[in-house]
Design goal:
Blueprint: E1 3-6, E2 9-16, H1 19-30, E3 35-44, H2 46-55, E4 59-60, H3 66-77
Parallel strand pairs: 2-3, 3-4
Antiparallel strand pairs: 1-2
């Protein structure tokens, strides 16, 4: 599983596929104060990115993937 929940931290690991978006939504609804750790994330499906953009949780770590590191994660930090 690419979405791992621990207390107030949700870790995204490996390649997060479209099916992980539903798991992430549930985790964020259950604990909206949770931070997201992307340090072990290699890929995020667009559906997972949309969930992150909708909830805008705080993000920890730095993703291995250049696109995630340079474009997606900075977009999460920026408030609309």
């Amino acid at each position: 599983m690419a979405v791992v929940t621990e207390k107030n931290l949700i870790r995204l690991e490996g390649a997060c596929v479209a099916e992980d978006a539903e798991t992430l939504v549930s985790a964020l609804q259950d604990a909206p104060e949770s931070a997201i750790d992307v340090s072990q994330c290699r890929h995020l499906h667009g559906a997972v990115v949309q969930v992150l953009l909708a909830f805008r949780p705080s993000v920890r770590g730095m993703a291995e993937d250049i696109f995630l590191r340079d474009w997606v994660i900075p977009s999460l930090a920026a408030r609309p």
